[in-house]
Amino acid sequence: MERLNSKKKIAVFISGKGSNLNNLIKYSQLNKSLFKIELVLSNKANAGGLKFAELNKIKNYIFDKEIQLFEKGAIKLISKFKIDIICLAGFMRILSPYFLKEVKIPILNIHPSLLPKLKGLNTHERAIKAKYKYSGCTVHFVNNELDSGKKIVQKKIKILKKDTPRSLAKRILKLEHKAYIEAIEKII
Ligand code: GAR
């Protein structure tokens, strides 16, 4: 009971299929978890990840018009539900400097590369094309520059000769799931 009350409340922002979200939800339901997923916000009405929120009876909201409306809605909800941490999990929009200033809680992002290498999109394709030996994922704080905030956890994996962007993405996603939990627990 004690632990339940002291668990940090997390809002997860998504745009897509939500495997990171689902993994965070599953972990948060364990007694040992230091956090609970309180809210899910999506900027896409058809984001697959919304089903995980529904299945687990987590409050979820869609703001799929302009990003300004998403941010306005998010600011209200974060204050209303006393959220402690925001986690971006496959959230494919850039948050404005206004939002980052307004929200006084940590914002974490997960990115599928070994930052500072390969900021931005299509990381797996670019890692293979550049013939990198390793790739991986990074959980970092969000700041005003794309994929540039302070690193919290980074995990790496060897790129195999036979890897395609798809196979690499699949293997890295598994690492992402571990990395996100480690990162959250580290900052709590
Ligand atoms: C993940 O690979 C995540 O690192 C990436 O989108 C995927 C979302 O998967 N995020 C970015 O590229 C952000 N720039 P998921 O919806 O299954 O969690």
H/E series: HEHEHEHEHEHEEH
Beta-strand percentage range:
15-25%
Mean of the pLDDT scores?
A: 96
Total helix count?
A: 7
Unreliable stretches (pLDDT < 50, length at least 5) are none
CATH structural architecture of one domain = 3-Layer(aba) Sandwich
Would you state the CATH class of one domain? Alpha Beta
Main pleated sheet:
7 strands, mixed
Ligand roster: glycinamide ribonucleotide
Query: Structural class of the secondary elements?
Result: alpha/beta
DSSP strand count: 7
What is the CA-CA span between the terminal residues?
A: 19 Å
Oligomeric composition of the shown chains = single chain
CATH topology of one domain: Rossmann fold
- Helix share, percent: 25-40%
The CATH superfamily label of one domain reads Formyl transferase, N-terminal domain
Shape: globular
Rg from Cα: 16 Å
Physical arrangement of strands within the biggest beta sheet: 3-2-1-4-5-6-7
